[in-house]
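Subject: two folds for Thursday's group meeting

Dear M.,

Sorry for the delay on this. The cluster queue was jammed most of the week, so I only got both jobs back this morning. I'm pasting them in the order they finished. Each block is the input sequence followed by the predicted structure tokens. Could you check whether the formatting survives your parser before we put anything on slides? The first protein is the one we discussed after the seminar.
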Amino acid sequence: MHHRINRMLGATLAIALLSAGMLAGGCKGGEKGLVSFWPKADKERTIPKPAEPPRWPLTGLDAPSQDATRMRVVSVKIENSPEARPQSNMQLADVVYESITEGGITRFNAIYHSQSPDTVGPVRSARLSDTYIVPQYNALFVFSGASSAVNGRVNQSGIDNLSEDAGITYPFSRSSSRPRPHNLYLSLAKVREESAKRKMEQTQNLTGFTFDRTAVETTASPVASISIPFSTANKVEWTYDTSSMSYLRVNNGKKFMDAATNKQVSARNVVVIWAQHKTASRDKVGSVTYEIVLKGSGQCAVFRNGQRFDGTWETDGKKPPSFRAADGTLIKLSPGNTWFQVVQPSINITMK
């Protein structure tokens, strides 16, 4: 009996040792006919993140393709004297800068990228501030009229100049419905045609703004309206419209209309930028021409979704400004168009 049990244990041990040898041989994979019984290791299954749709860099809105977003930006200098109103297709600009000129009136630099209307204007003369703005967007620059000092700075800066001052005529036309000099308009498509004819770059990799697509932060300050006194000659008010989640513009007490749409101009974001205004020249009647320094950093207030965010703006002059709160976090914009209201450091805005 004991011998039989010992023989059975011996056989069992031999089988176990043989199996171990087979497994070891199978792991080495060197012996023919031996197979590993270890399970095959699979990579951990991951669900790929959906691809981000192409978006316009200056509005954050959906673009038809990534190639479309690489099209060159066009920067247009637009008048804002009472005789120039209502302007045409300012609503279709991705970004608008408004700043003071001589006599207390303001002028616009309208940045077009995602939309290219056939009629934009009235087009007027450039200022030194444009030599800071245009390179940040690597834009094709369109204007009509400028001092020799401004034209010199535009040419020194390497800006692609498509102005009447540079002898360009093809994109421009005069309207018979207004007197000169308030009747010069242009076509964006013709501007791009002219730039191609002159061998200017047609594509660019544009640094855009940072956008927030989530719910509105509850920690921000609710603001129903913003009043910006550029000067005694130009007072602007933006009132938040909850239905469109946009700010509606009023200029000197009157609704600021767009002649192309016959609707009040609106902005998804209004950003007040306080910037240094250096006296560039002074004429015989004491009217001052400013050099507005839109490079470096300064204070800002970002208004979006009926909320106010205080912080600082910053740009190295080669890309559009970014905005940060006191704790260093980015202040993001709402997807849509943006108006920059550029004012002197001494200007106080009021809010309701």
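Second protein, same layout:
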Amino acid sequence: MLRIFCLLSFTTISFLMRSQVYPLVDSLKHHLRADPKPTFYWTSYNSFMTGRRIGIQALKAGLIFNKRLTLGFGYHWMGRGVEEYLPQEGKMVPLKMRYASLFGEFVFYNKKHWIGTLPVQLGCGKSFLHWKDDGENVKWKEGMVILYEPSISIEYKFSPWIAVGMGYGYRIMLKNNQAIDQNFYAPLYVFKARMLFEELWERYKDKILTD
């Protein structure tokens, strides 16, 4: 799956670069000289574990430089769907994973209403088994996880301030929780919706700063 992801990413980027507005080889240093604008958005990832579709939600905030480079941080949590048998409880127990991330996104295509981005993120957090015992939250087999998630996504701007998009990527576990049997290596299918706070900031910043 990782080889397929790399091949599809290369093919997609090669196709979209034919009509891109901005040269991809612009230096990051050049973009970082621009005045940053704030951004905030929600993202939903979908992957498959043990044959089931698992959703991971994320809230992200950051700064956009020159409308090309975004740097920021996020918080991610895994939804229901994966369980592991716990002998001492004699039952299947839900598996959870939560992590914080540092992320970057580079715009390689921007024409009319379409935006192509290359997001990457490095996350660090914990995975654990979770259940309730007499109304109290109980965690078991808690351990650290470190992961790397490269992806590619396409967004469509429905208005000057709202964009929705989708993409694909891969979760690579740099450090796994050895106490849990599940393998978190998985392809990712990304759906996201975001308010373009950078556009709102550009339009109303003078009023906000003078009030």
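Two things I noticed about the second structure. The chain has three helices and nine strands. The longest strand covers residues 136-159.

Cheers,
T.
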